[in-house]
Request: fold
Amino acid sequence: MSVIECVTTHLLFECYIGIIETRDVIVKNYFEDYRLDSPALDLLNSDWRDYRGSGRHEDRLDSAEWVSGFVSRWGFSEAGTPSNATISKLRALRGVLQRIVDSLVAGESPSEGDIAAMNDALAACPQRRLLVRERTGFRVDYAPEGRDWNWVRAEIAASFAEMLAEHDPRRIKMCENDNCRWVFCDESKSRSRRWCEDTCGNLVKVRRFRQRRRAEAARPAK
Reply:
């Protein structure tokens, strides 16, 4: 490759880098860019970090707007507005879920204490079985004894438990962009997904490219 071709290629790649790092449309914000598939994953990712590496960190459980969107999205509106004590319980449940995810990502088994904490959350709201008549027959339904925040915590825990029990736990992953740590379920056939989305994958590749360029530039000329 000639010197001119090398310079041209580098300039084009730098332009691509600039586009990747400055596009506002790729900023992860609340529910705009992600369509997560369980309330447990939403709760886990409420502990938000700026994937671009600015160091920004938000606990979105402190945001009334985020909590309102969360309960509306998952059909928990009947629980009403959470108290400070309720938010603390949600934060504690998130911690349990995160420790279990950390164990799974590391290829380890969750601790007995975290399993016990999950079972406590599942039992927070007892349910009754109901026989329901349908047009062509019957079905068994489950009715919570109350639709309060104990019910919400139990439903969040249940969504995570079902994900573990009904799918390969190895599909629960954390984005390999260290600045992101977004938790997701890898639904790819090969179970090879490494990033929450291509945006993070591109940024990491760009950073590695720049590191190689700096290392090459720092080498003494032959």
